[in-house]
Amino acid sequence: MPAVTETLDTVAAVTEGGYKWGFSTDIEMDMAPKGLNEDIVRLISERKAEPAWLLEWRLKAFAAWLKMEEPDWAKVHHPPIDYQDLHYYAAPKKKPGPKSLDEVDPELLAMYEKLGIPLKERAILAGVEPEEGERPPVAVDAVFDSVSVATTFRATLAKSGVIFCPISEAVHSHPELVKQYLGSVVPAGDNYFAALNSAVFSDGSFVFIPKGVRCPMELSTYFRINARNTGQFERTLIVVEDGGHVSYLEGCTAPQRDENQLHAAVVELVAMTDATIKYSTVQNWYPGDADGKGGIYNFVTKRGACRGARSKISWTQVETGSAITWKYPSCILQGDDSVGEFYSVAVTTNRQQADTGTKMIHIGKRTKSTIVSKGISAGRSDNTYRGLVRIMKGADGARNFTQCDSLLIGDQCGAHTVPYIESRNPTAKTEHEATTSKIADDQLFYCRQRGLSQEDAVGLIVNGFCKDVLKELPMEFAVEAQKLLAVSLEGSVG
Amino acid sequence: MNAVSQTSLQASAASFRARYEGLKERLGGDSIQRAEAADAFAHQGLPGPREEAWHYTALRPLTEVAFHEPVVLLSDCAAALAALPDLGMPRLVFVDGRFRADLSDAVTGATLRTGAPAFGPSVALGEKMVALNAMLAEDGAAITVAPGVDAGAVMLVSLGSDAHGVPVSFHPRHSVVLGAGARLTLVEVNGGTGVYFNNPVLVAEVAEDATLTHLRIQQEAAGAFHISTVLADVQARGTYDSFTLALGGRLSRVEVHAALLGEKAMAHLNAAQLLGGVQHSDFTTIVRHDAPATASRQTVKNVLTGRSKGVFQGKIEVARVAQKTDGYQMNQTLLLSGDAEIDSKPQLEIYADDVKCSHGATVGELDADQLFYLRSRGVPEAQARNILVRAFLSEALDPIEHEGARAAMEAAIAAWWERQA
Predict the structure, then answer these.
(1) B322-357, pLDDT tens digit by residue?
(2) What is the pLDDT of residues A309-324, one digit of tens each?
(3) CB contact under 8 A, B341 and A422
């Protein structure tokens, strides 16, 4: 059947076409030597001129990490990671601040261009002051390897009392806030990768929304791993006080390399009474080539605490990248009537492995959670949904609804669903449903018959399959995500 | 996991191994298989809470009891036997894991062999409780039905007695082999008095076009431990049709592994768990779809009161060759008390693309509207609750075709309900 050959050809074409974001930028780096020990932890802390309490916190986390074992319960397989064969700190070399765009390292600018950041923002990112009177919609914090390189629109945000800055800076400018909240949702010794992150994190974003403030624009972080053999360990902390509101976007890319790179991030969200946090991710790290060579190991701990009554945390993720994804954005629903949401699309192709899902811990009364997960597996990939819904004893009237759907494209991939449902309160209601299916022949036929190409038809059907999740994304992300889905699945159907 | 429970698991495993060392010369059956099992058990020990498959069921209470070999065999079981439902089928009675010809009937239509463990082919030694069973198995029923024969129904009774004055453990090993096109209904009743540990393994081989109906009532004594494993292999167009009613025991786990090895093979793994007090009961299934156009159906209902804990783990595995698989699983739980707990883990593991697999799980209490409807028509509260619970269970019970067995199940459920009230 020629379709098979056709598929192989298309796959080859796509692979040769390569990973669109697979460029690396040659910028002078300030790197710590390879390896991980107490001295490296001290070095990172010293480079950041951190206060003593933070160094102590890091060292405690490091001591805890040494005693821990790498978790093996996820349905992912990879050769053992040599934690001593990585650089734990890499920063672009400090130069005096540029006066205009012309003085900015052209390599850095070229990188922004490839990242698709608009010119004006590029200037701002590179540290050039924006013109007055303009108010673009998104503030960006770009994290380049382990260091936050630039944050835009800080002045505008400061007017409304919003703090948006690299966490390394927040440690100095708002030590009381960082000290109060850092590790309060994901403790330093929470799990293997979180402990590692706590010991060696070098930067990330810090967001603070004061009482009653609705953040005037969407906040965004762009993560990029650039240097070879570096692990990226960023740490994001978002605190929203009573009645505050923020929408936060996170995008990720990494250059194409043939060895695997480690990414172990921690994201902590704190929502107080009546506060709302919307956290959206489009994860597009380099997934490795068709044979599974290279790619990012993405081991991420994301957790939000709905501390106050009627608070709400909503996670939306579109995961198309990484060789391995190990990620469970969670909500601790502590406040009465608090709400947790998780909307996820995970696409795996070639030899990618994704084990992702969520945890909803219902503690407060009448807490509600919604989980909608759409997994799409193609090629020789494995895609697992793993999620926990726990109803604690005091969670009277709690409510959970979970829907997990898997779509298989091709007969060499796997789709798995592993929900854990634990209920200790009779007045709580939980519902879980899951289905696994393939793209129906009649749907494809219908589209083909109306003149759509095979790939457009698949794209259309997949977008329909993911609609419930994509509609939760902020506008710009939704467009990008739809394109990503189409690109990721190119050549997967013959 | 804490070190204490790890140590107690090891101590308990060591005592089982010591028993094997003391008994191995006297135990019957295939000594090679037994030695293999002993090796596996020495290596693996007892399952601990760190293992994914045993995450929700801790064997700690089991390790706190020192179990002995049941040596005094002839206890008087007349009362217990009289209490069993009379289903008009021959009875095979095991007391403390040993076959009692004096209490059993002759079987027609099938060949029966007892007096030694019915190992069957060496299987699943990687399952820790199966390895323990194979290491210490003393006896069992090997039931064989010739091709094309409908062997009717047989009742397999296990009684744990407290005649020994000390807690005992026993590890019966049964096998049921159905030839092509054969049929058998096996009604299994587990009960007893006192504190004991019943660890039976049943290996079922269902050939082409054969049907094994396996109906089980687990009503072990309140202080008893019950951990049973069924390993069923089903060939083309064969059916393994099972229903388990679990209402007894202090700590119980019923584990069913069904492998659908031939085209259009089928498995029904239905169950109802009714728990009260401080009972812990676990129903775990693993269905392996290993051939095209195979089908599995699971309807599992839990009703939990008191401070009981119910566990359901159901895994559907679909191999690459098993195109056109149809897998369905539904798990529903009624929590009738504020102190009861359910842990449910329905799992899909799918490697074939042209399949239809789904699972659903719900947890909640009785519907207030339904209760109100019945109350408003003059039905007393307790009765109204009973009606709703029975209705809730009916989806799992209704497919039972053997009317006598279904009536026995209904009676056991009614008795359970009265005990709770």
Answers:
(1) 999 999 999 999 999 999 999 999 999 999 988 888
(2) 999 999 999 998 888 9
(3) yes
Q: Buried (b) or exposed (e) across B322-339, using 16+ Cβ within 10 A?
A: bbbbbbebbbbbbbbeeb
User: Can you tell me which residue has the tokens 């990414």?
Assistant: A263
Examine the fold and report which residue of B199, B228, B261 is the final residue of a domain before the chain moves on.
B261
pLDDT at residue A439, rounded to an integer? 86
Q: Is B314 on the interface with A (CB under 8 A)?
A: no
pLDDT, residue A429, reads 93
Q: Is residue B16 part of a domain?
A: yes
State the Cα–Cα distance between residues A378 and A353, nearest whole angstrom.
Answer: 11
Query: Is there a single domain that holds both residue B160 and residue B16?
Result: yes
Helix axes A441-449, A454-465, angle to 10 degrees: 130
Let me know whether B253 and B390 are in one domain: no
- CA B372, chain centre distance (Å): 36
Residue A382: HSE in the Cβ half-sphere, 13 Å Cα cutoff: 20
For residue A156, is pLDDT > 90?
A: no
Q: Does B49 touch chain A (CB under 8 A)?
A: no
Reported as a pLDDT band with limits 50, 70 and 90, residue A149 is: low
Query: CB A409 to CB B323 under 8 A?
Result: no
C-alpha to C-alpha distance for A61 and A25, rounded to whole angstroms? 32
Domain span at residue B38 reads 3-261
Residues B379 and B254 in one domain: no
pLDDT at A12: 38
CA distance A449 to A451: 5
Is residue B312 packed enough to be buried (19+ CB in 10 Å), middle (13-18) or exposed (0-12)? buried
- Number of folded domains in chain B? 2
Q: Which of B261, B291, B309 is the last residue of a domain?
A: B261
Distances (CA, A) of B232 to A2, A165, B204: 42, 61, 4
Whether B133 maps to a domain, the answer reads: yes
Instruction: Judge whether residue B415 has pLDDT over 80.
Output: yes
The pLDDT tens digits of the residues spanning A378-422 come to: 889 999 999 999 999 999 999 999 999 999 988 889 999 999 999
What ipTM did this prediction achieve?
0.87
pLDDT of residue A214: 94
- Torsion angle in degrees (nearest 10) through CA of A467, A472, A474, A476: -10
Q: Going along B290-397, which residue ranges are E strands?
A: 295-304, 309-318, 326-335, 341-350, 356-364
Residues of chain B in contact with residue A428, where contact means CB-CB under 8 angstroms, are 363-364
To the nearest whole angstrom, how far is the Cα of B371 from the nearest Cα of chain A? 14
Amino acid at B243: F
The answer on B387 and B256 residing in a single domain is no
Q: What is the pLDDT of residue A22?
A: 53
Q: Which residues sit opposite A348 in a β-bridge? A: A377
Residue B126 lies in a domain: yes
CA B344/CA B340 separation, integer angstroms: 13
- The better pLDDT of the pair A261, B359 is held by B359
The answer, yes or no, to whether residue B72 has pLDDT greater than 70, is no
pLDDT exceeds 70 at position B224: yes
Q: What CA–CA distances, in Å, run from A314 to A208, A306, A341, A466?
A: 17, 10, 4, 17
Give me B277's structure tokens.
């007090």
A435/B320 CB distance under 8 A:
no
Chain B residue with minimal CA distance to A388?
B345
CB B80 within 8 A of CB B93: no
Distance CA B5, CA B59 (A): 9
Which A residues 83-142 touch B at CB under 8 Å? none
pLDDT tens per residue across span B349-386: 999 988 888 899 999 999 999 999 999 999 999 899 99
Of the candidate ranges A27-41, A214-228, A423-437, the one whose mean pLDDT is the lowest: A214-228
Question: Is residue B289, in this structure, part of any structural domain at all?
Answer: no
